[in-house]
Amino acid sequence: MTARRDLRSDAGQAFPIYITAVAGLLFLALALFAVGQAGATRNGGQTAADAAALAAGQDYRDQLRTAFLTAIADGGAWDDLLNGRGLGVGGACEQAGWFAAQNDAEVTGCTPGYLPASFTVTVRTRKPVGDTVIPGTESKHATARAKAVVTPRCTVPVGTPAPTTPPPADDHDEGGNGGDGGKGHGGGKDDEGGKDGKDKKPAVDLRCDGEDVTIDPAHPDLFPDAEDLFSVHLAD
Predict the structure, then answer these.
(1) At what angle do helices 176-183 and 185-193 cross, to 10 degrees?
(2) Which UniProt key words apply to this protein (predicted)?
(3) Can you tell me the distance from the alpha carbon of 230 to that of 65, in angstroms, rounded to the nearest whole number?
(4) What DSSP string describes 25-44?
């Protein structure tokens, strides 16, 4: 009888230990779940930041293409535009905000950079981590940051003159015979030359990702796409 009572006594003393161990394991599991939930929220925030930064860079890239090809068509200077400079931010940060919202986050900062052109975007998730065994997570939001860089794909081949804005045409036929020539046969040639020569802008030769590209202002339908002129990628 004594031995039996001792066994029952040992079992009774071990039971609270088992309960404590199970409770500890349960708490550890819930804590790991909380960590995983926080990690998922953080990953969602990073995805939103990446998408927002890329959207800003792509919008700026589209603006660069438009301005660059317009300058070529108008015979203006385009070297800064080809290098990703010479424009304001425009609606790039608004695009970042829209894409962040699609990923359930909001933009808290959008900072443009230059040399090279870039956009650094910070976001905050709209939803908190939620209720967990760790205090404070019910109101904890994730924040994330991403930087997108706009890099030119094209360069001007060696030996190509730098583009410049041509000066406005002057009346070099002022007075004297020059003025009379403008009215006579010679003037007619000048007018014809203006139509066939001055109004026709020269084609531009570029080297894009190792390939020769010619942009002819006379054929705007053949202008390259924005992604052919500039790349947009996330920086480390």
Answers:
(1) 70
(2) Membrane, Transmembrane, Transmembrane helix
(3) 8
(4) HHHHHHHHHHHHHHHHHHHH
- Order of strands across the sheet with 211-215? 154-155, 204-208, 211-215
Pick the closest to residue 146 from 54, 26, 39, 59 (CA basis).
54
3-state DSSP assignment of residue 164: coil
The radius of gyration computed from the CA coordinates of the chain, to the nearest angstrom, equals 34
Q: What is the pLDDT of residues 132-171, one digit of tens each?
A: 545 555 557 788 999 999 999 999 887 665 555 444 444 4
CA angle 199, 201, 203 (to 5 degrees): 160
206 phi and psi, to 5 degrees? -130, 165
Q: Are the C-beta atoms of 94 and 55 separated by less than 8 Å?
A: no
Give bridge partners of residue 233 from the DSSP assignment: 149
Judge whether residue 9 has pLDDT over 80.
Answer: no
Q: Could you give the angle at which helices 92-102 and 2-74 cross, rounded to 10 degrees? A: 150
Quickly tell me which residue has 């070297």 as its tokens.
79
Task: Look at the block and give the residue holding tokens 């939001």.
Answer: 141
CA distances from 146 to 73, 88, 128, 178, 230 (A): 35, 20, 20, 63, 19
User: How far apart, in whole angstroms, are the C-alpha atoms of residue 38 and residue 149?
Assistant: 29
Of 235, 58, 57, 231, the C-alpha closest to 146 is: 235
pLDDT at 183 over 50: no
